[in-house]
Amino acid sequence: MGVFRGPHLLPFCVVKLTHLVSGFMSDKQAGQGANDRLHISPHFLRRREITNEVARYVLMAAAAVSVFVTIGIVYILLSESLVFFETVSVWEFVSTTSWTPLFAEPTFGIWPLLSGTLVVSGIALAVAVPAGLVLAVYLSEFAPANVRETIKPILELLEGVPTVVYGFFALLLVTPLLQIIFPQLPGFNMLAPGLVIGIMILPYITSLSEDAMRAVPNGMREGAYALGYSKYHTAVRVVVPAAISGITAACILAMSRAVGETMVVAIAAGQMPNFTFNPMEGAATITTFIVQVTLGDARHGSIAYQSIFAAGLVLFLLTLLFNLIGFFLRRRFRQAY
């Protein structure tokens, strides 16, 4: 068996070393060429820094505007309401059940306006929440892609319909249809506008709830299928509880929209304050009264005029209460994936 000697290996080693050195030099030259090609101009870096700073301050200003607008609204409501409560006691405002600020002998009990607002909003939510959740579950879990992409834009088109159109729809179509079922139903009532507002806020609940359900990871659905759940039971017992935070936010947003609705109620429910919880009767809401007074029925600076700010403060507090409830519910049931 032969043994390799050193002199026999020398040419081979020299050749390999030459290849390594030449390869290293070529890589180094290529790297230098790449660095030259990727050289970034200092002016470009400076422009990018300036652009980032400008965008940062513009976004900060946009956020600050929303805060300042909210502070301004609160300031106006509180300052003008204090002028009102210098003449009318808070106890009279919250305890009496007669609201006639434009009469010769005015009374300022907020309950007629508050009851009308709550009844109309309650009817709207009773229509929109069940229908919206059922439709959201269908779009998220059962509908084919082409059906989903067709129905969802149609629903969202309802958000663009002017509220005046909804008001006349309630007065001229829904109310006569209801009078066929309830012959004693008057022309102005809270039932028809409540139903129409429920249709109007339906896209809020459907769209936001469907987005929340589609955000649930597919792994949770697959785990339910592996345990033997049907598609229906997976949707009801897994997907909906997992998306309850987003569903709650959708319902609170729809509730705030229903409470603040003006034109539908002003056209179809009448403008006479009436302390009742019967949806078959006509009544005025807080927003309806504000519209009525601001159209010129009260002299600027009078106590009747100041009453719109007190009513607006009640509406603001009511909406704030709903949003706080929604905030705590979202924190209670929030799930991060």
TrEMBL record:
Membrane-spanning parts: 54-78, 110-139, 160-182, 188-205, 235-255, 303-329
**Gene Ontology annotations of biological process type:** phosphate ion transport
Q: Which GO terms describe its molecular function?
A: phosphate transmembrane transporter activity
**Coiled coil (residue ranges):** none
Q: What InterPro entries has UniProt attached to this entry?
A: MetI-like, MetI-like_sf, Phosphate_PstC
- Gene3D superfamilies in alphabetical order: MetI-like
Keywords attached to this entry: Membrane, Transmembrane, Transmembrane helix
Q: Name one Pfam family in it.
A: BPD_transp_1
All copies of the ABC transmembrane type-1 domain together span: 114-326
Q: GO cellular component annotations, sorted alphabetically?
A: membrane
CDD domains in alphabetical order: TM_PBP2
Question: How does the UniProt record describe the way this protein sits in the membrane?
Answer: Multi-pass membrane protein
- PROSITE patterns the UniProt entry points to: ABC_TM1 (PS50928)
UniProt subcellular location: Membrane
Fetch the NCBIfam families from UniProt. phosphate_pstC
Q: What is this protein called?
A: ABC transmembrane type-1 domain-containing protein
- Tell me which species this is from: marine sediment metagenome
